[in-house]
From TrEMBL:
CDD domains: FMT_core_GART. This is Phosphoribosylglycinamide formyltransferase. Catalyzes the transfer of a formyl group from 10-formyltetrahydrofolate to 5-phospho-ribosyl-glycinamide (GAR), producing 5-phospho-ribosyl-N-formylglycinamide (FGAR) and tetrahydrofolate. NCBIfam families: PurN. The gene is purN. GO terms for molecular function: phosphoribosylglycinamide formyltransferase activity. It comes from Maritimibacter harenae.
Length: 195
């Protein structure tokens, strides 16, 4: 199976995914694409010998359709079976989602369906939640909606800030996403639950 990974930043989730696809794993990373030129994850992908590309959304000001058309054109050249959004910070329209229907995954740093959107850890702290975490879900037209394929939970500790909570969740993301992908590429939709 051919996996394309979309990033916008440091790409730590991309690294975890790419490094999981070795040996008898049925998938391999075929492209890492960033909407941000110079994103830290691009160098990490190149260091792993993975093809990279940039489709800069700023090159299509106010024209989301044109940006997505360029995204689709570049992605289709890599003929991916699965698209993993990993710290990809652009909202995708139904046009893109329908083009890859049922084959797009995303990782979101909250225990969905709670805290869709941004600032998830700050919102969990404000709500006084005893635990937080991350979710991997199939991408549908509804932002951070779609069937949940896995979740990882961490305790909220006294004195936590959004930063300390994010630092506790991120390593769990790096375990969860590869575990979900390994099942997804075999057609197994059994949700992953960590720990
Ligand atoms: C992570 O918190 C992830 O949950 C969110 O983007 C953040 C950065 O991810 N989607 P990465 O280090 O760029 O993979």
């Amino acid at each position: 199976k051919r996996v394309a990974i979309l990033i916008s930043g440091s790409g730590s989730n991309m690294v975890a995914l790419a490094d999981s696809m070795t040996g008898d794993h049925p998938a391999r990373p075929v492209l890492v694409l960033s909407n941000v030129p110079g994103a830290g994850g691009l160098a990490k992908a190149e260091a792993r010998g993975i093809d990279t590309a940039v489709v800069d959304h700023k090159a299509y000001p106010g024209d989301r359709e044109a940006f997505e058309a360029a995204l689709i054109e570049r992605l289709d050249a890599a003929a991916p079976d699965v698209i993993c959004l990993a710290g990809f910070m652009r909202i995708l329209t139904p046009r893109f989602i329908n083009h890859y229907a049922g084959r797009i995954l995303n990782i979101h740093p909250s225990l969905l369906p709670k805290y869709k959107g941004l600032d998830t850890h700050a919102r969990a702290l404000s709500a006084g939640d005893a635990e937080a975490g991350c979710s991997v879900h199939e991408v549908t037209a509804e932002l951070d909606g779609g069937p949940i394929l896995g979740q990882a939970r961490v305790p909220v500790e006294p004195g936590d800030t959004a930063e300390t909570l994010a630092a506790r969740v991120l390593p769990m993301e790096h375990r969860l996403y590869p575990a979900v992908l390994a099942r997804f590429v075999t057609g197994d939709r059994t949700p992953v639950a960590l720990p």
